[in-house]
Amino acid sequence: MTFGFKDKKTPSRRQFLTGAAAAGAGAMAAGAAKANGPDPLITEVQYWAQGFGDGVDATPYGLPIEYEADVIRRNVEWLTADTISSINFTPIHALDGTITPQGCAFERHHSGAIELRKEDYRLMINGLVDTPLVFTYADLERFPRENHVYFCECAANTGMEWAGAQLNGAQFTHGMIHNMEYTGVPLRTILEEAGLDAAGDLSDKWVYVEGADASSNGRSIPMEKALDDVLVAFKANGEALRKEHGYPVRLVVPGWEGNMWVKWLRRVEVMDGPVESREETSKYTDTLANGISRKWTWEMDAKSVVTSPSPQSPITHGAGPLVISGLAWSGRGAITRVDVSKDGGKTWETARLAKPGEKMALTRFYLDTEWDGEEMLLQSRAMDETGYVQPTKAELREVRGLNSIYHNNCIQTWWVKASGEAENVEVS
Amino acid sequence: MSKCPKSFVASALIAALAAGPLWAEKLGLGRPALPEEVAAWDLDVSPDGTGLPEGSGDVWTGDELFADYCAVCHGDFAEGVGNWPKLAGGKGTLDHEDPLKTVGSYWPYLSTTWDYVNRSMPFGNAQSLTADEVYAIVAYILYSNDLVDEDFVLSKETFMEVEMPNADGFIVDDRLTAEAHFVRDPCMENCKDNVEITMRARVLDVTPETE
């Protein structure tokens, strides 16, 4: 199979990632084992099979083994003016399953990751409530709690790709996302503790939520959502939130853009209307081609990406059995199906979901296939339970133009070359 | 705080959403917030000016304060330095290829400027400005955007007189109607005649090194 791109330059060595070197070594090792007889890793006693490993007191709280040192958050310097109000990226190209390890789950701050002790933590509920209240952290742990797994996707995830293929790797194009199991108290429970009789008809009421950091990150949320599934969370993936993810308390807003997941949550105000804060006027509004901008684009639409093979995760094993793996998610419900194309969208095969899709949570898909060693234009296309089918970038641009910044849920294409390398491309 | 059992059926909405409450009464957790505490934290200002404190500031006072506290990042004329946000300019560019979105060209409400400057600026030293200083700095930002005259004094009273050029530039999320065509039966076979690569990230070469 060949494709029409004319300017096919030799891959630069600089950008040929570690995987390529590993490919060479792997091929050689396999060849050597065949050519030179018995494998010494088997026939010779190895040190780990003879002496001791580490004692149980060596690592009270462990980090990944050093050989996984590339599975880390990365930032892109040119994206923002400084690293304080900035973003980094989850290494989704190297992860599997759906739960994101907290230590490499992306960060987005507007005035840095603050350090707030549980003892210093206060949560205020005020505004149109019967009794404005102040809670300590200890108070929050005494409310009946729930556990839920949800994705948190930055509204700007894939935003750099609106104008074209820019960043070469799933981590950079799709890594402003994490997926955790949260433990917390429904916001509804806490609002009801303050009493909502004073608010009267709740159907036109809002809550304004803000953090304890200097940026405050204040956002307005309609009461219907606040009373539905919003969680005041204090644990993620079984343990306390990480500092950079809002320790000790953050808001979890299922299916909605990550900006609304206010970290270091300090205040919830019941109001008659939206505040129209900086983060819902200047930012997190989506400008269309005619100059008019959408506001309150809260839900994250159905989206997917092939995480492997991908530019940072090339094919290193040559032709033969190949696992195409990726993630799909939707802010409007559960993923029901993911299709994969190897020819840039001419034909599609339905992939296998590792588990049935859960509402507003990452879903892992696999296509177990046989690679013939030829070029592929790999794509994935998610469907959610509303019947929404993930669109192409061209289809999104038709509606929105090029300047939306946020909410780019287009189909991603990886050009997998005969070498096994992959590159971020756009196709016709 | 009352610890009397309260009914949760105050409205149909609550009744609909509070499916199967786990308990029939409040738990009595937390304590009433004191007025001083609410005043210290509840600083938000709404588009109609609700939340604004007493105070005032004029353009020229704002110019001096801006030079002292803001210009190092935002420029002497609010035009921005380097990669830091531009607060002025960009009028009429929103439908251009590369729109310049500033307080003057984009922000729909003046309340947002006051609220954000008061709560979160200067970057690295937030909540260090008095109400009068915020009024003055906002007045200067308006002047930098040619939205007020040089003798303008911004106050709680004059606040609603200021017209923001892009006040009507926003619509509520219409994806469910404007993008209803994305709910469909997806094509599986012969979906395109031809596929060409039209753009490559590697040619652009702006991805950080991963070594």
Write the layout of secondary structure elements.
The complex is a heterodimer of chains A (428) and B (211).
Chain A (H helix, E strand, L loop, with lengths): L17 H18 L4 H4 L42 E2 L20 E2 L12 E6 L5 E4 H4 L5 E8 L16 H5 L2 E10 H8 L11 E6 L7 E4 H6 L2 E6 L2 E2 L9 E3 L12 E7 L14 E2 L5 E3 L7 E6 L11 E10 L5 E7 L7 E2 L1 E2 L9 E9 L4 E9 L8 H8 L12 E4 L5 E6 L1
Parallel strand pairs in A: 3-12
Antiparallel strand pairs in A: 1-2, 3-4, 5-6, 6-9, 7-8, 7-12, 9-10, 9-11, 13-14, 15-16, 16-20, 17-18, 17-21, 19-20, 21-22, 22-23
Chain B lengths: L11 H6 L13 E2 L2 H7 L14 E3 H11 L1 H4 L35 H11 L10 H14 L8 E3 L14 E3 L2 H4 L18 E4 H4 L7
Cofactor (chain A): Mo-molybdopterin
InterPro entries (chain A): Ig_E-set (IPR014756), MoCF_OxRdtse_dimer (IPR005066), Mopterin_OxRdtase_euk (IPR008335), OxRdtase_Mopterin-bd_dom (IPR000572), OxRdtase_Mopterin-bd_sf (IPR036374), Sulfite_DH_SoxC (IPR030835), TAT_signal (IPR006311), TAT_signal_bac_arc (IPR019546)
Enzyme class (chain A): oxidoreductase
β content of chain A, as a range?
25-35%
Annotation field: number of helices of chain B: 8
Read across the widest sheet of chain B, the strand sequence of neighbours is 2-3
First and last CA, distance of chain A:
16 Å
What class, by secondary structure content of chain A?
Answer: alpha+beta
Structural class of chain B: mainly alpha
The number of helical runs of chain A is 7
Strand order of the largest sheet of chain A: 4-3-12-7-8
Q: Please estimate the helix content of chain A.
A: 10-25%
Keywords (chain A): Metal-binding, Molybdenum, Oxidoreductase
EC number (chain A): 1.8.2.1
Cofactor (chain A): Mo-molybdopterin
GO biological process, one term (chain A): sulfur compound metabolic process
